[in-house]
Amino acid sequence: MSMVIVGVVLFGLVLVIHHWWRNRNAIVTNWPMLGMLPTVLYNIPRLHDFITEIMKKSGGTFELKCPLFSSMNFIITCDPSNLQHIATTKFSNYPKGEEFREVFDVLGDGILNVDSHLWKLQRKMFQLWTQRHAKFDSFVAMTLYRKVVDDLVPFLNHATETKIQVDLQETLQKMITFDNAILFIFGLDLASYSFKSSKSDYQKAFNEGQEAVILRHVIPKSYWKLLRWLDIGTERKLRIARETFDEFIYQCISLKRDQMSHNQSQNNNNAHHDGEANLGLLTIYMEEKEKPYSDKFLRDVAYSFLAAARDTLTAGLCWFFWLVATRPDIETKILEEMKEKLVGNYDNLDHNKREELMSKLVYLQATIYETFRLYPSVPFNHKTPTKADVFPSGHHVKPKQMVLTSVYSTGRMEEVWGKDCLDFKPERWISEQGEFVYVPPHKFAAFHIGARTCLGKDMALIQMKIMALTILKNYHFHIVEGHLVCPTLMVTMNMKYGLKLRVSKRSF
Ligand code: HEM
Predict the structure, then answer these.
(1) Distance from the CA of 13 to the center of ligand 1, in angstroms?
(2) From residue 267, how far is each of 31, 262, 278 by CA, in Å?
């Protein structure tokens, strides 16, 4: 009997070695029954770089064969002509799709999760609202500036004096980006209101919800659905996180409603006023009287905007400060440009003047774009074709086959960015005349391209500049020795172990 077992094991081993030998030159080994899954699972901790290696070897597009009987069947591309094709030329054939909706059910009917009329409605509402508050970007930027001055600066001063270690990612999430997103969505300054639980409990619930959703990508659908039905494991964690966070959003909706009706009773005869009650994207939805939107829909709108605005900005800032801290030559150039172009007392300027000055900081802008080229906050995008199609690269796509575009890889392709594509080099964004170089969005898709381009791009860039200026002028960051900086496997490319640093003062 034992001889039979040994024989079977040896036979299996010979088959595996034989298969491996025949496939040794393949880009990814395609195992019988298991497809390419073993190699993908083995490389999960370095997924973005693994995908980039595949992209380089395959010329920019590759089909990942998944296990037999599995519905997972991906085509991954980072080829700019394919990106353009998917997001613009054949936009209607590439919706987000039902699969995405199911995995991200926490987003409900929010803009990040829907196609067709609900998506169009939310983009239209955003445009209506920005037309009404043409200066809202400036308002958000100014409020961010105040938050930095009132909260972050004292915290960093304290860190300088006590020499404590700071996790910049956690600090930004706690002090800046969450509050700022809530201000933009609801027009509510969180510091002025109290809630059933603490702000940090709600933020924790938001983070936990995002992590649990990501796990749905790597475990089979039937398995996570079973966990959900039994209300155990990661699905239980997701349900609790969702309920906790919803409690927070519904309180914000109710506060906003009270604020608006109080404001209306005081201004009955004055339809156009610019009080605090009129601020926040949700007001434009809440003003609808004939067919009022349900609280559940308002919650979905708010959740998507929060998901779109908070971590993308935190991630962008962390990669920016890490890159600058590790490249003193670039830090020096940013500071020299600031000294040359920011004349007078920058801190006491009114916001319009500050924004005008910021637009002259070409090197700073180039450094921010270069950060997003190598570390895009949203590294992947996901679409599901409704009909069969052929990419400009010649690859055939089947209906319902998952299409992943890797913006992370596009930024690292020699064919797109040249031989020095892996070098962090802000100079590539500046022309010989010293002007900022325009790169078409399908080559630089950090803010996505086509009809679903990011709605917060301008706002985010102003916020990044304000943070960069205010911090770099006053502080120098020293990354803690041995601290490992690597990306998380989340929708947004945050840092897996945070950004641990010490702070020292700088005299500008
Ligand atoms: C550094 C900051 C940011 C980056 C890198 C970024 C990037 C992106 C990307 C790549 C997408 C496409 C996502 C997808 O289709 O799944 C997107 C969509 C979106 N972004 Fe941003 N974003 C940033 C900040 C913001 C901010 C501050 C807002 C707030 C208004 C915002 C609002 C949105 C919205 C509403 C969408 C959905 C657009 C649609 O589907 O039509 N983003 N963003």
Answers:
(1) 49
(2) 70, 9, 12
Q: Which of 122, 279, 454 to mutate to test the pocket of ligand 1 (most atoms within 8 A of CB)?
A: 454
Cβ-based neighbour number of residue 376 at 10 Å: 28
- The total of other beta-carbon atoms located within 10 Å of residue 266's CB is 11
Structure tokens at 349: 């300027």
User: Which residue's CA lies nearest to atom 20 of ligand 1?
Assistant: 454
Q: Name the CA radius of gyration of the chain, rounded.
A: 25
* Token output for 43: 């490389």
What stretches of 43-152 show up as alpha helix (H) in DSSP?
47-58, 80-84, 97-103, 116-132, 136-147
Q: Is 320 in the pocket of ligand 1 (CB under 6 A)?
A: no
Our answer on whether the CB atom of 441 is closer than 6 Å to any ligand 1 atom is: no
pLDDT digits (tens, 9 = 90+) for 179-219: 989 988 998 988 888 999 998 999 999 988 887 787 787 67
The per-residue DSSP string of 260-318 comes to: HHHHHHH-TT------GGG-STHHHHHT--SSPPPHHHHHHHHHHHHHHHHHHHHHHHH
Using alpha carbons, select from 302, 290, 289 the residue that is nearest to residue 253: 302
Provide CATH code, domain 40-267+274-505: 1.10.630.10
Using a 6 Å cutoff on CB, does residue 447 contact ligand 1? yes
Domain ranges of the chain: 40-267+274-505
- Taking the centre of ligand 1 as the mean of its atom positions, its distance from the CA of residue 185, in whole angstroms, is 14
What's the residue count for the chain? 508
- The pLDDT tens digits for 313-332 are 999 999 999 999 999 999 99
User: What pLDDT does residue 404 have?
Assistant: 93
Distance spanning both ends of the chain, measured CA to CA:
80
pLDDT at 271: 45
Q: Is 302 in the pocket of ligand 1 (CB under 6 A)?
A: no
The protein residue whose alpha carbon is closest to atom 43 in ligand 1 is: 454
> Within the chain, which residues score under 70 in pLDDT?
1, 11-12, 15-16, 18-25, 67-72, 135, 218, 267-277, 343-354
Distance 493 CA to ligand 1 centre (A): 13
